Write a sequence for this structure.
């Protein structure tokens, strides 16, 4: 997150009266301190971490779901920042509907039936499933860290495991990695949709994010990497096992696929 973005968020929230110049000067610091006044855990953090934490506090207060107030800039914070920006440009709350339609998702519930089918959002079933990955995946925002498994809803562990096994087999490990299909951006996250009051499919452990850096939330097929022809085989594997890509259905959020339909 840039200094200009921090200042813009502070200004939107009336904690910064100055110009958007990218300089963390006295007025910007004062705004950051004002926002973090009721967050004593941030007092020992350096200014770079505190500036992001201040933005996260504001984003959280406005229902944009930045994740943990930790002062670290991950894809949740970036997406929340974009949602906040669009919300204020439009003058109305931004609700991103993370549901999708498709011809091969008939065995999975519609968005309105998630709790009936999967149980409560954030419930024990949402993390009871374990996906064992065929090769180590890299954490998208920290590629030096790898994982060999991740938690999901128990009902989707089987198809998720099959998707990644078949995709690695199809492409081969080297090509799979070159295409950055191994960049894991998360699965379970007990939060609402961006800017809305409805629970995200991530809160049920039924959605996966891959390579969010190159497939950002509002990017369409003209820019997102996952819309390129070399990824067609991957999406066919996803759809074969009942997964739905919001990007392929509605032309945004190509990093995300889920086991739910409209």
């Amino acid at each position: 997150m840039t200094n200009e973005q921090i200042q813009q968020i502070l200004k939107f929230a009336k904690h910064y009266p100055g110009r958007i110049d990218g300089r963390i000067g006295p007025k910007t610091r004062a705004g950051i301190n004002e926002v973090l006044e009721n967050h004593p855990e941030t007092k020992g953090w350096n200014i770079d971490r505190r500036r992001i934490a201040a933005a996260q506090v504001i984003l959280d207060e406005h229902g944009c779901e930045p994740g943990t107030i930790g002062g670290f800039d991950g894809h949740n914070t970036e997406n929340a920042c974009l949602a906040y920006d669009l919300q204020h440009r439009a003058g109305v709350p931004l609700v991103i509907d993370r549901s999708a339609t498709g011809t091969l998702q008939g065995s999975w519930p519609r968005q309105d039936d998630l709790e009936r089918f999967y149980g409560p959002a954030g419930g024990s079933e949402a993390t009871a499933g374990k996906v064992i990955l065929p090769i180590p995946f890299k954490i998208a925002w920290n590629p030096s860290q790898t994982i060999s498994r991740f938690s999901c809803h128990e009902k989707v562990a089987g198809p998720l495991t099959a998707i990644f096994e078949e995709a690695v087999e199809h492409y081969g490990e080297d090509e799979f990695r070159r295409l950055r299909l191994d960049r894991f951006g998360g699965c379970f996250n007990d939060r609402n949709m961006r800017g809305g009051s409805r629970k995200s499919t991530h809160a049920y452990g039924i959605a996966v994010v891959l390579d969010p850096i190159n497939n950002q939330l509002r990017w369409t097929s003209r820019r997102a990497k996952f819309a390129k022809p070399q990824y067609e085989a991957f999406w066919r594997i996803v759809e074969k096992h009942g997964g739905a890509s919001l990007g392929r259905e509605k032309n945004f959020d190509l990093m995300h696929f889920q086991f739910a339909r409209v």
In short: The CA atoms of residues 89 and 220 lie 19 Å apart. Residues 111-258 form one domain.
